[in-house]
Amino acid sequence: MLNFLRYVLATILGLFIFFFLGALIMVGIVAASASKGDVTVAENSVLELKLDKAIVEREQENPFGDLSLGFFSMSSGDGLDQIKASIRRAKTDDNVKGIFLNMRFVDAGMGKLEEIRDELIDFKESGKFIVSYGDMTNEKAYYLSSVADKIYLNPMGTLEFNGISSEVFFFKGTLEKLDIKPEIFKVGDFKSAVEPFFLDKMSEANREQMTSFLNSINDYQLRKIAEARGKTYEELKKVSDEVLVREAEDAKTHGLATDIGYYDEAIDYMKEQIGIESDKKLQLVSLAKYKKVKDAEKSGSAKNRIAVIYAEGDIVDGEGGDDEIGSTRYAEAIRNARMDKKVKAVVLRINSPGGSALASDVMWREIQETRKVKPVIASMSDVAASGGYYMAMGCDTIVAHPNTITGSIGVFGIVPNFEGFFKNKMGITVDRVSTGNHSDMPTVTRAMTPFEKEIVQREINKIYEVFTQKAADGRGMSQDELKKFASGRVWSGIEAKERNLVDVHGGLEKAIEIAAARVGIEDDYRIKELPRRKTFLEEMLGESGSQVKERAVKAELGQLYPMYQMYKKVENMQGIQTRMPYELIIQ
């Protein structure tokens, strides 16, 4: 009887899941079909940018993007590619009279912010207006808003303008409580990715490098804001350091806002600029809608392609997921670009803190082979450090933003010893039979012997020597000269250019421009994006289960979710790593 009930319940559950997924697929097909139709924009419209989703390099196809079913949200991040394309399209769209930046908090790295801001500045050359409104505005959002013609701040609102910072979590105390002893192997005084496992605060070397690159980024952005607002760097540095903007009126007093007003007042101002009567509705076009507007026919010869290979996420061995740089998948993408006769040049777009040393080297090799037959240009986004720099260092030219985070040329490895945890915390003991003194190496159930430690450290040293030699060759420097800037040290894009670690400051378009010029095709080309992204249907059928689980965990853990992410990254690490500090979050 019980077995019968189990079968009945299992059948009911299976039918429920079948019909639920079937309904989602049908809605997706309908939504996808609808999205393919031409979207029209009314006259005298304004493009509204909220940028309230995480901004990723490339937008994923998702017909459910605006749906939300509790923790099972189908919302995806906004693609930097689509944001820039929409701003560019609005510049020449006669129906769009301006842009409304209606933002609170922007979830994007510094490199992506720079590219959006540059597009906004270019948009203003059309003579159209940009108006910003905020009630609670963080520094990233304000960095974009600073280019606006009018900046409205709610009378009861707040504007964060007190500099940038970054926090590092340390797990030494946790490991001691759990009786877990990590064996640390590294090369480089500044290779701080391992510090959280054996220190309870930053080393002096790590504090030095973080202070240096954070100040470099902060000073750069203050100068850009000062230029946009007609202020001096010294004035804004004083405002920031002394936290002189505490209330809305303070922002206007110090020239960071042009008007203290409510949302409706910002709307009324735009109506006035367009010539719409005050009692009429202003047509605000959302980014979600505007990015579906059909572009003009692509110009350029179909025989000339520039391949843009988007490499975003942690570097891992094998295929990897869509949010990872899997060496197998990306080596194939680089190889395909090399073998494609229509592809005349390659741009490698990198946004990665690094990862597997082996995977990084596999992709480096494919880049070297490709350079023999066509130019390869690296474009650094928010971060291209350690393994990310490993990918870039072999390219013909490296393009980075002044506020890109890069460098971190160093290597590390961690071998945890769980013997004490198993025995003292779990009551588990381990015994073994081996054919040799080190047959069980590597193992996490006993302490390593001095001989075994020496073997691992020698391997770390070897990889560091290979890394620095290849970097030196790529940069046209001696190995000894390059090592002065290595040791795992992280640099801003400004600092990196001063040390010949990058060549040019600029964004993705600058890298594409350089690539086109190298092969003499200027504007006569089209872009080919690699690797191929999975369709929404492929994503939903292939990974819906893991995505549901991930969203459920995120909903349950709340603010503790970043800690869970760190744990998962450590769990997934295999082999020797070339990466920067785990979660370098600038806020």
From TrEMBL:
GO molecular function, one term: serine-type peptidase activity
Protein's recorded name: Protease-4
GO cellular component, one term: membrane
Localization per record: Membrane
GO annotation (BP), single: signal peptide processing
Pfam families found in the cross-reference section: Peptidase_S49
Annotated transmembrane regions: 7-31
Active-site residues (renumbered): K191, S386
Coiled-coil ranges (or none): none
Broad class of where this protein is predominantly found: membrane
CDD domains cross-referenced by the UniProt entry: S49_SppA_67K_type, S49_Sppa_N_C
InterPro entries from the UniProt entry: ClpP/crotonase-like_dom_sf (IPR029045), Pept_S49_pIV (IPR004634), Pept_S49_SppA (IPR004635), Peptidase_S49 (IPR002142), S49_SppA_67K_type_N (IPR047217), S49_SppA_C (IPR047272)
Keywords attached to this entry: Hydrolase, Membrane, Protease, Serine protease, Transmembrane, Transmembrane helix
Family indicated by similarity: Belongs to the peptidase S49 family.
All residue ranges annotated as the Peptidase S49 domain in the record: 124-275, 370-520
Gene3D superfamilies registered for this protein in UniProt: 2-enoyl-CoA Hydratase, Chain A, domain 1, 6.20.330.10
